[in-house]
Each structure stands twice: as structure tokens, then as C-alpha cells.
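Researcher: Structure for this, please.
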Amino acid sequence: MKKILFLFTLSLLLCSNLFSQWINKPTNTFFDFFDCHFINVNTGYVVGYGNTILKTIDGGNNWINLSFPTTANNINCVFFFDANTGFIGSTNDTILKTTNGGINWLNISAIGFQSNKITFVNQNTGWAAGFNSIAKTTNAGMNWIMKNINSNGSLFFINEMTGWTADYNSGSSTIYKSTDGGNAWNSQRINPDFKIIYAFYFLDANTGWAVGYRENILKTTDGGSNWTTQRDIAGGAGLYSVYFVNQNTGWIAGDFNFGGGSEVLYTTNGGDIWIENFLSVNAGRLSKVQFVNSYTGYMVGQYGSVFRTDNTGGLTNINVNTENIPQNYELKQNYPNPFNPQTNINYSLKENGFVTLKIFNILGRKIVTLVNGTQNDGNYKISFDADKYSISSGIYYYELNVNNFHSVKKMILIK
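Model: Predicted structure, C-alpha cell format:
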């Protein structure tokens, strides 16, 4: 009995620690958010009910209200190339464009349907989908051409030619794929029993996921020719958005579950196992999850909810602070030092770059690579636990390389 109680308490602590890593960013509105698009860790847009458009340039600490005058229309979707140029889709069947960061919007085209999704693969080529329709532009949104395919608004293009969508008809949802830029679509899978597909995410032309109603999660490794069911729960919550930061680590934003709050799922093994938890009892339905790098991500949803993480929702041991961009590259002395068995390593990046952070023993043999990938400018902290690598007391060195910067420092482990 004591063992069971201990395990239960431990699980609660672990869940609390994990989901404390999604930090609430108050927006001072209770309007529902339907979509978001962040172009980097600091600058992003959220859109939703009542023509709501909010912009942040400091990672969600402060919000600029760019909303239209109150009308019966809503903003369903948003996509930005950079801090200035972007698109929104309105329930008045119109796509609008801005070239000055949302200060002014140009009524580009009345496309004849409400778009739930806007996506571009380059500055000129993009698609809008929703309400049994898809439209395409090849001239940066100046003109939109209707395509002969039903779509419920779920849409994902990996390049100019290859994309996926899904429809809903009489209790089933069909997944379609195009290999010619959206002109022709071929059926790949019929999902029965009201398992409506709401969203896709593909890492490349082969590996992707589809998520939807009744907690249905599908994965493909051959471009959609075959789909494997990873999760399927009758009566389960709706899943509305999915994002993978690499082949293994992904997050899904879901519906409000009366058992605990806003349901999210995460995986660290490509979806073989999905772990369920609840983000907040006050966030309602979560409509979108997006990561801008391997660590920093956002979720948005009902009641003006915005959440941010800087360590992949608690799944990594790296924290990043981008509020005060450093003027120089710097590798700081670890602390505590000497240490047993844990210590922290801080470093600063004045520019984006490919970063490696490695630890070596006194003989120059590499013990572990802590960081190996592209990171944005900012201040980083990473935890190192010597017990994970079964190393003994002694002198060790840690080395940072980024762009043309190189630095090595010494640390001492005493057990």
C-alpha cells in the first residue's frame, strides 16, 4: 500500500513539474483563439473570435491589439513569412494581407468560403482550405484559384508539389494526397466511425501524423500510402493540432476534458507511446500548437489562452531566455563547481547558429554531447547530471562551438 501511494505521489509530482513548463501568457481577453503563427521565439500573432488579432514582440509578455472594429466576423487562421508580411482568413470569406506587421490589411480576395487554414511553402505559393474547398495562389496572394477537392480545413504541404488534406462526409473522414501542387487529389485512407481528421504534420515527404476526433492518431512512414493507428479511443477528446520538433518528440493540442482540463498529449518515441495530461483547468479547448525551434513552443485556445515553453514542455533540460538578447557570445563557468552530481552550464548567443556543447574527460575523450543543433540568439541554461553517465570524480572540460566562437572551461566532480 505504501509503495502504491509513493508511486501515485511521484506521478503527480512529475506531471506537475512537466506541465509547469508550459507558462501562461495572459492576453487580457477572454475571446477564443483559433490559430497562431510565431516567426521566432519573440514575435508572433494570435487570431480568433470577434476579429481578434494580437501581436507580441517579446515572447508573450506584452500584447499589441491589432483587432478590427467589433463585427460579427471572426479570424480563423493566420500565416506570416516574417515580422511584416502575413495573411489572415476571415469568416466573411475573405483573405487579407499585411506588409507592415498588421497595422494595415489589404482586402486581397473574396475566395467564396471561410478558410480554416492558410499555409505557404515560399513567398509566392500558398493554399487556403475550409468548408469543402481549397484555393491556391502562386503570386503571393494577389489571386486565388479554386481547386476541385472537398476539404474540412485540414491541410499540410511539405513542398510546392506534395500535400495532404481530409474531408468529412456521412460519419467518415477521407485522407487525400496531391503530388502536383493541389490540382489532383488521390484518396489514401477512409477513416470510419466519426474519426474526423482535423490536422496533419509532416517532417518530410514520408513521415507524418494525422490527428482528429475520438483521440485518433495516425502515422505514416511512406508518404501516406499506409497509415498506422497509434491511438484510438471511443468517446475520447478531439485532437486539433499536432507538431513534431524531430523524429521522436511531438505534442498534440486537444479538447477540454471534464476529467481535468485542457487535454494535451506528448511523445518522445515517435508516437509509439502517447502520454496524456492536462495543461490547465481554465484554458478550454486548445486549437493550435507550434514550435519555433527544438525548445520554444506555443499553444493557444479558448478564453484567450496562450501558453509558452522554453524547454519542449519540460521534456528537455535546456531553458532559454530570449527577452534580453546578449551582445556577445559567452560560455560561463558552471555552477555549482565543484559539483555532485548535478551542475548548470550557462551560455549566451548573440546570433542564431549551429551550436555544439560537449563534455570531455581529462584525457580528451568525449563523455557526452549536450547540444548539437541550430539555436536562436538568447541566454541558455542546461543541466548536467554526472550520474546519468556513470563517471567518477575528477576534472572535466566542457566546450562550446557556435559560428566562429569557441570556448572551453574546466569543471570538477567530487563524489
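Researcher: Any notable elements?
Model: The first helix runs from residue 2 to 19. Confidence is low (pLDDT under 50) at residues 1-20.
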